[in-house]
């Protein structure tokens, strides 16, 4: 019983840091860019609430049926990848709660992506919600981790060349 009380208390305690993690993989054989983005559920709920979407109950049995569409709309407004000057169009494949039950992994993908030599990543996810928000992104090309980035309010866009 004691462990259950501690566990329930931990679930209600707000975290003191604001960070997201994003893994981007380019799979040229499939012409696909796959993105896995980890966000704290309460942070995402607050960001969506701030743009007018309340009571979504993300990752619960009461989750609003429009939640995935609203998450995609939010991500499209705050996260983009531009390859050789062309903005990549992507879809939300789905989401799943992380093992700690505090976060959610959002999975997005773009199809029919030809090889490219330059990329620009814009990651403003949650930057308007928290002053101290940091977004960590790793980029993998042809199975090799090429770049690591840290995005914040001062630096929400990163450009790089594929070597």
Task: List the topology elements.
Layout: H1 2-12, E1 19-27, E2 32-40, H2 41-50, H3 67-78, E3 79-83, E4 86-87, E5 91-97, E6 103-110, E7 118-123, E8 134-141, E9 144-151, E10 157-161
Parallel strand pairs: 1-8
Antiparallel strand pairs: 1-2, 2-6, 3-4, 3-7, 5-6, 7-10, 8-9
How would you sum up this structure, described in words?
With 163 residues, the protein is α+β, with helices and mostly antiparallel strands. It has one domain. The chain has helices at 2-12, 41-50, 67-78; strands spanning 19-27, 32-40, 79-83, 86-87, 91-97, 103-110, 118-123, 134-141, 144-151, 157-161. The protein starts with a helix and ends with a strand.
Key descriptive features of the protein:
163 residues, six-stranded mixed beta sheet, disordered N terminus, alpha+beta, single chain, 3 helices, 20% helix, 10 strands
């Amino acid at each position: 019983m004691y462990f259950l009380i501690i566990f329930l208390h931990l679930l209600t305690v707000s975290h003191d840091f604001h960070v997201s993690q994003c893994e981007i993989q380019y799979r040229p054989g499939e012409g696909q860019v796959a993105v896995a983005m980890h966000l704290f559920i309460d942070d995402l709920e607050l960001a969506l609430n701030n743009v007018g979407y309340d009571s979504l109950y993300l990752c619960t049995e009461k989750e609003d049926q429009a939640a995935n569409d609203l998450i995609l709309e939010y991500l499209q407004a705050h996260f983009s990848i531009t390859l050789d000057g062309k903005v990549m169009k992507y879809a939300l494949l789905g989401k799943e709660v992380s093992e700690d039950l505090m976060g959610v992994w959002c999975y997005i993908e773009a199809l029919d992506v030809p090889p490219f030599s330059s990329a620009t990543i814009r990651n403003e996810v949650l930057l308007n919600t928290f002053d101290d928000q940091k977004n960590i992104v790793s980029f993998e090309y042809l199975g090799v981790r090429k770049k690591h980035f840290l995005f914040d309010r001062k630096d929400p866009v990163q450009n790089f060349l594929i070597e």
